[in-house]
Amino acid sequence: MYDMKWQAPIVIVLPFPDGPQRIGSVREAADCLMDRWPEPDCSFERDEALRICLEVFEGGASPQQAREAFLAAARAAGYVTTVQPM
């Protein structure tokens, strides 16, 4: 379930140098939150999204829950540019 693609990816724009990112699975969301998310953003939404992504890996949450949490974190940080309807 961790590698399962979401029906609708989320496109975000991170501050330089990363630019636009197309996030389409729990693994991609977790990688983005851990490795590419700007360091100063240690918000509740970011931490919650990462926690839920890791719970999917352990079987405690669904990919849809991870997508919703990632979307909330990206919106809170002002990074969302495109969200396709599910």
Order the strands across the largest sheet as they lie in space: 2-1-3
Q: Segments where pLDDT lies below 50 for 5+ residues?
A: none
The Cα radius of gyration reads 12 Å
Q: Please tally the β strands and state the result.
A: 3
The helix-strand sequence is EEHHHE
Helix vs. strand class: alpha+beta
Task: Describe the model.
- The structure is a single chain.
- The protein has one domain (5-83).
- Strands 2-1-3 form a 3-stranded antiparallel β-sheet.
- α1 (26-36) crosses α2 (44-58) and α2 (44-58) runs antiparallel to α3 (63-77).
- It has helices at residues 26-36, 44-58, 63-77; strands at residues 5-14, 19-25, 80-83.
- It has 86 residues and is of the alpha+beta class.
- The chain has 3 helices and 3 strands, in the order ββαααβ.
- Helix content is 48%, strand content 24%.
- It is globular, with a radius of gyration of 12 Å.
